[in-house]
Amino acid sequence: MLKTPLLAAIALGSATLAGTGQAQAADLTISCGAVGAELTLCQEGIRAWEAATGHSVDVVSTPNSSTERLSLYQQILSANSSDIDIFQIDVIWPGLLGSHLLDLREVLGEDAAEGHFPAIIDNNTVDGRLVAMPWFTDAGVLYYRADLLEQYGHEAPETWQQMTEIARDIQDAERAAGNERMHGFVFQGRAYEGLTVNALEWVASHGGGSLVEHDGEISINNERAAAALDLAASWVGEIAPSGVLNYTEEEARGVFQGGNAVFMRNWPYAWSLAQSDGSEVRGKVGVTQLPAGDGGQSAAGLGGWNLAVSRYSDNPELAAELVAFLTGFEEQKRRAIDGAYNPTLAALYEDAEVLEAVPFFGELYDTFVNAVARPSAVTGDAYGRVSNAFFSATHDVLSGSRSGEQAVADLERDLSRVKRRNW
Asked: Which residues of 299-331 are buried (b: 16+ CB within 10 A; e: fewer)?
């Protein structure tokens, strides 16, 4: 089948991993990462599968931005194109893309999901169909400079208020000692999906609900949610750099890994990078659960990615076999050890080699199992508008153009309009 013009436009970025140098078409095409360690780990797994099976696979380069990647996927799938057999999909996309995806139980059997976290399997099941296999899960965690906390006599914080005070204390002391670039806290403050996750963690940890509840009720307009957003706004320009308003995960990691932040909110992937050769903070980092709000409890946003097979694939059974391999025990173990990617198989959280490589996997097991999901299932196709409204309002609070009270009231009104039209 001929490639669509859309995929042909990005085909120059694809990488054939068969290594034969022949001009023949590959047996399968997969999108499984854009850049960096994530893409490298996928390529290594595919090479192993190719060596074991004799098949060849093309890895298609896609945008690093999850928003742009989703748009690309939607265009390809809406065209019923067979150009990409396997898609790496975000944990919030099964409901959006499910009608275009293969029921993996039909190919891999009813026990295909055995051993994976049930909550993720439920998330990936649309109208009774298992449309994606869990590849790795994620939950927000708090990184901290263990050496600095020890030097200045502090324990890891249990509340956001404690974190704020410790961050200010160490930031001020370090600057007085000559480190003018030291900041207390970095996080994901750009107006994008990452801010939705951060803000949901702040709100939920203060007992302010989950933006939209499981029954579809809009719950954001309350005092606890407003207080959570106001507290976050107080960090900007004080313990967090003003530039945090444009930070994604990588900008935050760059500051922290460069030795210029006391605390960082990020995903588990940053652990192996912080411990890598050349890292300014190698051997100096601790990881703990995110702090609780006043009167609340720790809340970590659920993230993670899955692998799905297109219903329009010319080789659906073969594609499903590759998905089963990449999401299987040995591959998830390798990715956990080499890249600190959280397995979705419960057994790997008791594996000695995994726990030696990433000690906090065992310590924070409950955090990963009980992470707070974004309201993508209940809001369905409207989730993109819901998230956009949430991160835009939060960004306004962080930048000082709205108070928390104003933002949550405006959000309730805006989301009510979306709900009337779409969910």
From this structure: bbbbbbbbbbbbbbbebbebbbbbbbbbbeeeb
Reduce the DSSP state of residue 159 to 3 states and report it.
strand
pLDDT tens for each residue of 388-411? 999 999 999 999 999 999 999 999
Tokens of 177: 């000692």
Q: How many C-beta neighbours within 10 Å does residue 162 have?
A: 15
Q: Tell me what pLDDT residue 369 has.
A: 87
Between CA 402 and CA 395 the distance in angstroms is 9
Length of the chain: 423
Spell out, as residue ranges, where the chain has pLDDT lower than 70.
1-25
Amino acid at 157: P
- Bridge partners of 278? none
| DSSP secondary structure, 275-288, as one string | TSTT-TTTT-EEEE
Give the pLDDT score at 423: 82
Give me the pLDDT at residue 12, please. 37
Burial of residue 87 (CB within 10 Å: 0-12, 13-18, 19+) is buried
C-alpha pair distances (Å), 323 with each of 85, 122, 147, 270, 310: 10, 18, 41, 25, 12
Q: Which residue pairs from 352-359 have beta carbons closer than 8 angstroms and sit at least 24 positions apart in sequence?
A: 357/272, 358/268, 358/271, 358/272
Between strands 141-145 and 285-288, the pairing is antiparallel
Q: Are 248 and 187 in contact (CB under 8 A)?
A: no
Rounded CA-CA distance 278/260 in Å is 15
Interstrand relation of 15-16 and 57-59 (parallel, antiparallel or unpaired): antiparallel
Tokens of 367: 């955090």
Contacts of 195 (CB under 8 A, 6+ apart): 188, 189, 391, 394, 395
Question: Is residue 301 within 8 Å of 371, Cβ to Cβ?
Answer: yes
* pLDDT tens readout for residues 247-288: 999 999 999 999 999 999 999 999 999 999 999 999 999 999
**Tell me, what amino acid is at 181?**
R
Q: Which amino acid is at 334?
A: R
pLDDT value of residue 6: 53
What pLDDT, on a 0 to 100 scale, did the predictor assign at position 24? Answer: 58
